[in-house]
Design brief:
The chain contains five helices and no strands. The protein has helices spanning 2-21, 39-59, 88-102, 112-130, 135-139. The longest helix has 21 residues, at 39-59. Mean pLDDT is 83; it is low at 19-27.
């Protein structure tokens, strides 16, 4: 009986050790993006969703401030192409974007459309030089009055 208990205990501890040593490299996926993507690509997809929520709020006469953009790590997110975010041009564009987004808390309802469209323009300008593919979708975010 002692041998069986020792064997079961040993197997249990070996299983725990093996499981704890495994590293999980789960990549984020969805039905819209079955191939996953880099940290920066997912950040951009999340920002697009947030911008769509802001757009809807503005059109309905509500405040865009209800849907703040989560872009704090735009300078540190790992890009799809290595080195893409280390260029001086990207850093300048991202810094300007962060400064602009940080002003959103001061925007009154009357100035929301102009501010929001300015945000979309900053996205378009960066994507024209860094990664033009998403611009088709980004340009659809503009609010035309």
């Amino acid at each position: 009986m002692n041998k069986i208990l020792t064997l079961i205990t040993s197997i249990f501890f070996m299983s725990v050790v093996m499981l704890s040593c495994q590293t999980s490299t789960k990549e984020r996926t969805s039905t819209n993006y079955p191939n996953g993507g880099s940290e920066l690509a997912w950040l951009m997809r999340d920002v697009t969703d947030q911008m769509e929520a802001q757009r809807k709020a503005i059109i309905e006469g509500d405040s865009l401030q209800k849907f703040p953009l989560d872009v704090a790590h735009i300078l540190t997110a790992i890009p799809t192409e290595e080195g893409k975010t280390s260029s001086p041009q990207y850093k300048t564009l991202a810094d300007n974007f962060l400064k602009h987004v940080n002003q959103s808390k001061d925007i009154q309802l009357a100035g929301q459309v102009e501010f929001y469209n300015g945000t979309v323009s900053l996205c378009v300008n960066c994507h024209e030089t860094q990664c033009p593919g998403p611009n088709v979708r980004i340009k659809k975010l503009y609010i035309t009055e």
